[in-house]
Amino acid sequence: MPKPDFNPEKIPNGTVEEAIKKNEKKTEIKPEKKQTKEKTRKTEIKETEPILEPVLNDYNPKWLKITEKTDLPNREEIQMIIKGEKTPWLNKLEFELIEQNLWQCKKCYSIIQNNEKPETCAACNRVTGFNKITDEINMNRWKLPIWKNIPKEDINMLLVYDDLKKILKKCIVLGEDIYYDLLALWIIASYKNECFDSISFLLFLGLIESGKTRGLDLIRELGYRMIHTTGVTFPCMCRYTHNHKAGILIDEIDNKIDRKTEDGRKYLDFLKPSYRKGSVYAVAHKDDQTKTMEYNNYGFKAFAGERGGNDNAFLSRCIIFTMEQDYPEVPSLKYVKDELDDLQTVLLNYRYKFNNPDELPVDFDLRGRDREIFGCLIRIASHIGLEYGYILDFIHKRKKEIVEELQESDDYQILKAIYESENLHTLDDAPEELSYGRISELCGWDDDDNKKKRQRIGYILHKKFHLKTKRRSEGMFLLLNNEKNKRRLANYFKRYGLLS
If phi over 0 gives left and psi between -120 and 50 gives alpha, with beta otherwise, what is residue 278? Predict the structure, then answer.
């Protein structure tokens, strides 16, 4: 189970409401006597540290205290555990709503509610210290879900998924039906964010009034701890992801990841690696020159813009939704607010009451970047019982389209010329070097109209592909017998579809 945002002091036996009532009467709460051991094992319970989740109850902010309790097994059940048999009935979750801004007196252990740290205990009338039990809830950080305790057996995640797709179709216009599937699975996956080693970014691309911002609004309404912002500083982004494990939704992304500006480069440096767990953003300590500070920047993120920036590495981490400039069935999300709230409530129950999705098998039919960005969606599809074969077909089709786009570039023409020059010879007379002039000839760039393309050969080989070249009296040459060049060229041939 995920860790709480902070480590509250352990609440004494008895509910918080009872403690507050006793405080109002100004009666001391005496420590309860230890319960005598009964014959039944049900009185012996192992309790884990509680998780605190900010929620709404009757539209008032409260903390949902989630405690996992494990009944100590009897002899027969111990033998079952040793044999590897499942004993799920021993584990159970308890849910309790408690107030914000609670403090516990260090002398009488009474619990009182106060916006600021009190100095005098209202129960024992003594000046003393206090331990903070619950923080104040920030209602503006992300949309707080409305809490209802729904029994697990009443939750059918396939039906929830279907309802999620239906409401997405009402509220936003996407190019193909498959994109509603991907968006719905991504939203569900956000409630199991700790389970994945990598996730995909979402990028809504389109002209003005094409529904880009509406896409981010829907994620904020339905996803887990999603913060929608048009402007956020680096320290703030770090604290969102590090302290709260929150998702970040950024509108108008084009200007924020512009490599021509210093701030744009910083945004890219923060965002690009944050799709993988274990990624950190490191800064020097403000006061101590010998220390550094590291912030976890991994987390779910979605963006909206007209172009999405010009960084290919950033775009390769995104599932791109090209928005249609059309009007959805629902003109404003306020008309479906109750449906959105109900879905978010069910998804919060799913987060804590369902086990984690299984890992993908080692030999699963996903490789490289596709496995990194689509693996979490396939795992969620399998977890909720959804047949995902059509999603795999989409992923393979997408990869083929990416290769076809690469083959329209000058990079491909140069690589093709190098590949063909190597295969036109036998192993005995294969060339050890290849001149830029020969590459230009094989590309068909000898005429004056392709002068600019000829001038780019050196830039593409040396700066972009990082291949070793050498200047001779006859001109510049690519070294084909260099070991690093051989390895890199083999990878580029495969990426650009020259090798299967």
Answer: left
